[in-house]
Design the sequence.
């Protein structure tokens, strides 16, 4: 399909599976005796390992952030617009690492993996993972790759939470944290949306308390509904209006309950496709990780207090029409950073696409990201 | 560096924590960081300036003084709060000054003097709103909505109980001229004021 590949693409990439057999103890006090992490890397690590950038993925993301797996691939990795030669995260200068987090369903150990104690898939027995656990596992990954200190840890949404957690848990192991379209903690409304998504999954008849693997079935319908709810919250009213309006698939109303409006069939299509490629237990786990994230919790609900130990520099970006994690949530984070005397830069990008705007290049977003990462690269000697 | 920034720079002690309101492309903060180990933030609304600041390693926050104020900064956070050539462009300069003195120990403010003799002459002779090198706008498109004179500013400081530590009067090129020191409100184009709270 892509012959030749775009010149600003990292090209054909191959994921690698790294096996870890030192036990890791999680926030829920349970231990995984061994586990796999699937990663992709782009660019070259320089001699003093100072040019490494970690990309943290969002809710339904994974290790495939840029490039193509084959020439037949129709779509590149999920953040291809920002990672590649000459792009904001310039692979001519940086060594970029992206991974599928623990609990994921794209090769890293997760609910669908075999539980060595039972020989069956973990299913609901897979421990609930927190953002802190992910960051812990990513630090072990850095050790494995010989990276003492990341030039930057970068992430949007749930990925931004991981970047923030890095700055708190391993302050000496990153020089910059780039937190995009994120929040220091979920609001009640955010948690409510996640709960609707989880209820959609767990109330699916095919869910079987999470043991659907053993029944050789999948809670497709529940996962589809969960994704539909999520998808609505990632877009803005304006972007949906522009894309679909009230357009009908056929000319006239049919006075029935089939998908008549274009937006209905779009959501159904997206939901169905998602339910074929994503694991329901992973979706539950990832939304729970979102809900639990609250670094201020252990510091008397004082975010500034939590941030006092952070010594990296921060770039915080928000998007004007993001109503899932509004600019106000980013400002809350920035104000806590100011109060904690962190070095922080902040901008609100005017973009019409809601929360998803962090995946879509706009001139100002690209310019800021590029300028900031250029400086990170210069500091790293890259 | 702009001559006025050079003058200001001399008043910043090494290691100071500084807030620069309307920091532009971050030239001054960048200099203070490198040469004086200063820390701090710039506030700016111009998008290109914000990008430039980020590229050169100056911490910049996109924040509009008119709509957001300085409410996100705690009392007595900064050693110095700077505002060069922006006082006349904010909606409530008096409130901005209050905020500057709340969050900072010292304030440094520069603004164009509307009592400068050329402007007085322009208005007297033509009966129209003055235009000059330092005020290159029409009355209807100027960002300067609260022009004042040195005397006005000093009266406001007096009323608020702010003490003027230093006043340096410069011309349009930000050069210090002996003549303008002689009769500043008539002959000075731009003043650089260093102020502090009376009680501090």
Sequence:
């Amino acid at each position: 399909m892509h012959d030749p590949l775009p010149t600003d693409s990292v090209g054909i990439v191959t994921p690698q599976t790294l096996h870890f057999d030192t036990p890791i103890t999680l926030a829920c006090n349970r231990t995984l005796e061994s586990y796999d992490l699937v990663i992709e890397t782009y660019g070259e690590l320089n001699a003093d390992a100072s040019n490494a950038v970690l990309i943290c993925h969002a809710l339904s993301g994974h290790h495939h952030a840029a490039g193509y797996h084959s020439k037949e691939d129709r779509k590149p990795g999920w953040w291809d617009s920002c990672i590649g030669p000459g792009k904001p995260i310039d692979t001519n200068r940086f060594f970029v690492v992206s991974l599928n987090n623990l609990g994921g369903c794209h090769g890293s150990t997760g609910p669908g993996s075999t539980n060595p104690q039972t020989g069956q898939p973990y299913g609901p027995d897979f421990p609930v993972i927190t953002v802190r656990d992910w960051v812990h596992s990513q630090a072990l990954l850095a050790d494995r790759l010989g990276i003492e200190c990341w030039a930057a840890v970068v992430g949007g949404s749930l990925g931004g939470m991981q970047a923030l957690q890095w700055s708190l848990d391993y302050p000496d192991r990153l020089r910059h944290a780039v937190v995009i379209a994120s929040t220091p903690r979920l609001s009640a409304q955010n948690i409510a949306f996640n709960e609707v998504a989880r209820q959609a999954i767990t109330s699916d008849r095919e869910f079987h308390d999470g043991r659907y693997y053993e029944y050789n079935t999948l809670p497709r319908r529940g996962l589809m509904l969960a994704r539909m709810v999520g998808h609505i919250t990632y877009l803005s009213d304006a972007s949906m209006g522009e894309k679909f309006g009230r357009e009908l698939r056929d000319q006239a109303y049919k006075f029935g309950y089939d998908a008549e409006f274009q937006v209905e069939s779009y959501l159904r299509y997206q939901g169905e496709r998602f339910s074929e490629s994503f694991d329901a237990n992973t979706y539950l786990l990832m939304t729970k990780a979102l809900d639990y994230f609250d670094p201020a919790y252990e510091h008397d609900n004082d975010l500034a207090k939590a941030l006092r130990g952070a010594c990296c520099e921060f770039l915080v970006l928000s998007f004007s029409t993001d109503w899932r994690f509004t600019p106000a949530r980013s400002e809350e984070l920035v104000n806590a950073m100011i109060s904690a005397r962190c070095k922080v830069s902040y901008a609100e990008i005017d973009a019409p696409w809601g929360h998803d705007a962090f995946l879509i290049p706009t001139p100002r977003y690209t310019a800021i990201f590029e300028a900031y990462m250029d400086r990170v690269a210069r500091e790293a000697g890259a | 560096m702009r001559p006025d920034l050079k003058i200001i720079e001399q008043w910043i002690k090494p290691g100071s924590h500084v807030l620069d309101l309307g920091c532009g492309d971050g030239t001054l903060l960048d200099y203070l960081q490198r040469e004086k180990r200063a820390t701090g933030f710039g506030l700016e609304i111009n998008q290109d300036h914000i990008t430039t600041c980020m590229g050169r390693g100056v911490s910049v926050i996109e924040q509009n003084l008119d709509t957001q104020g300085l409410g996100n900064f705690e009392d007595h956070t900064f050693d110095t709060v700077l505002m060069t050539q922006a006082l006349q462009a904010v909606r409530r300069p008096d409130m901005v000054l209050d905020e500057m003195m709340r969050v900072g120990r010292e304030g440094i403010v520069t603004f164009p003097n509307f009592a400068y003799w050329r402007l007085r002459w322009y208005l007297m002779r033509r009966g129209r709103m003055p235009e000059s090198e330092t005020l290159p706008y029409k009355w209807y498109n100027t960002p300067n909505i609260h022009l004042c004179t040195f005397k006005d500013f000093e009266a406001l400081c007096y009323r608020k109980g702010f003490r003027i530590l230093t006043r340096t009067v410069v011309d349009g090129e930000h050069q210090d001229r002996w003549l303008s020191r002689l009769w500043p409100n008539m002959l000075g184009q731009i003043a650089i004021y260093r102020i502090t709270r009376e009680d501090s």
